[in-house]
């Protein structure tokens, strides 16, 4: 029954041809970890080989004048246009997510010098929490912790109950890394602004899988990685969003030569560039931006609305299989059932999952284990087939003690 249902869904899938445009692995039967590392596109395999011979090898240092220098902004504009609902000139690519979060948090605190508190949740990704702990100690600020339902996430009501006149910044994830909960970003942003605070959204688990409209929502700052649903490859550089109205007054704390008004003058003083370029620091990772461009082409071709529709179908099918095959075996669903409140992954919990995950990987079935007892099923809409979901959940059932 589940096999025929998966076949029907794959046959009717308007995005069903896209998985064939990605590099496949002969020993992987079901890849359910696209929310950690996306598959490479076949176009990227060709682009990387050509870059070594034609761009790097043939053009050498001339490549900087011909295209590389502007890549952090041109790729940033495409990320903004295709996935973020952001007009040109507001997104830059460069550094890791950790470094960009540090930059933007310090930028926001400098813009609210008389406010002493930062709101963050206890279930946010460790990097976000650790950076905030360090910055709070560095700058003499106080963290105000929100404790969400671990099977859901931070609500607008919780933020409204926590925020106050001393709040400088709210830092939350748009999609919770563990539960997959999709926060109400427009409502929370409005609540923060009503209190005079700024908002920074971590988009790592939503960019490329959930449509966004940062400009319309009034978002101040955002950061996200590119190796999950943007398929940029391991360690590909992250991006940052800084709303246009803030750019000329916000000061970024890592003042590097690529963010100056005249980088190649090599002057004695730091003078920030106009606009979004001032948020760059060091020399950008040109090779790291190559694969992102190919995935953005596919995302633009498919369209974010169609990607979101496929995502909701994939996670709904996975939950149906979990209900039928795993819940009777003592597995718990630790993600929202409402499709409007979840991203493109779900989490299930069982005390045996650490051992189960190791056996699944040995079989070529790749979910993602999260301590203490969670398996995340990350379903990337352009690369995941419904048949992979069926195979994966049935294999989990078979491996349960």
Features:
globular; Aspartate Aminotransferase, domain 1; seven-stranded mixed sheet; about 400 residues; alpha/beta; single chain; Aspartate Aminotransferase, domain 2
Q: Could you explain the architecture of this structure?
A:
- With 401 residues, the protein is an alpha/beta fold.
- It folds into two domains: 2-31 and 303-399, Aspartate Aminotransferase, domain 1; 48-299, Aspartate Aminotransferase, domain 2, CATH 3.40.640.
- It has 13 helices and 13 strands.
- The protein has helices spanning 2-12, 42-59, 62-66, 71-84, 97-111, 126-139, 156-162, 185-194, 214-217, 290-302, 304-326, 353-362, 386-399; strands spanning 30-31, 91-93, 117-121, 142-146, 167-173, 198-202, 221-224, 239-242, 332-333, 345-349, 365-366, 368-370, 374-378.
- The strands form three sheets. It has a seven-stranded mixed beta sheet, with helices on both faces. Strands 9-10-13-12 form a four-stranded antiparallel beta sheet, covered by helices on one side. Strands 1-11 form a two-stranded parallel sheet.
């Amino acid at each position: 029954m589940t096999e025929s249902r998966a076949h029907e869904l794959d046959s009717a899938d308007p995005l069903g041809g896209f998985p064939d445009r990605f590099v496949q692995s002969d020993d992987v039967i079901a890849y359910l970890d696209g929310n950690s590392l996306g598959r490479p596109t076949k176009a990227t395999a060709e682009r990387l080989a050509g870059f070594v011979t034609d761009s790097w090898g043939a053009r050498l240092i001339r490549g900087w004048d011909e295209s590389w220098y502007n890549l952090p902004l041109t790729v940033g504009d495409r990320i903004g246009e295709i996935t973020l609902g952001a007009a040109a000139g507001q997104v830059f690519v460069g550094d890791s997510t950790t470094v960009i979060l540090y930059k933007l948090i310090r930028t926001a605190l400098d813009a609210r010098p008389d406010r002493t508190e930062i709101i963050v949740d206890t279930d946010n990704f460790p990097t976000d929490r650790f950076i905030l702990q360090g910055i709070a100690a560095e700058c003499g600020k106080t963290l105000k912790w929100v404790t969400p339902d671990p099977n859901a996430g931070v609500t607008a009501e919780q933020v409204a109950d926590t925020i106050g006149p001393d709040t400088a910044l709210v830092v939350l994830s748009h999609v919770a890394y563990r539960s997959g909960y999709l926060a109400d970003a427009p409502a929370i942003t409005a609540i923060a602004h009503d209190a005079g605070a700024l908002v920074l959204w971590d988009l790592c688990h939503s960019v490329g899988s959930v449509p966004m409209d940062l400009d319309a929502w009034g978002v101040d700052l955002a950061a996200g990685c590119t190796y999950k649903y943007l398929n940029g490859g391991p360690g590909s550089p992250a991006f940052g969003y800084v709303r246009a109205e803030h750019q000329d007054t916000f000061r970024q704390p890592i003042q590097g030569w690529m963010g100056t008004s005249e980088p190649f003058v090599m002057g004695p003083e730091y003078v920030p560039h106009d606009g979004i370029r001032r948020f760059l620091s060091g020399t950008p990772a040109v090779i790291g931006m190559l694969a992102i461009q190919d995935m953005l082409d596919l995302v633009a071709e498919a369209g974010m609305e169609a990607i979101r529709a496929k995502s909701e179908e994939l996670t709904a099918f996975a939950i149906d299989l979990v209900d039928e095959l795993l819940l009777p075996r003592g597995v718990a669903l630790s993600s929202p059932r409402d499709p409007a409140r979840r991203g493109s992954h779900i989490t299930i919990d069982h005390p045996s999952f650490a051992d189960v995950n190791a056996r699944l990987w040995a079989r070529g079935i790749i979910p993602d284990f999260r301590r203490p007892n969670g398996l995340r099923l990350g379903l990337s809409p352009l690369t995941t087939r419904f048949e992979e979901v069926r195979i994966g959940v049935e294999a989990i059932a078979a491996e349960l003690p």
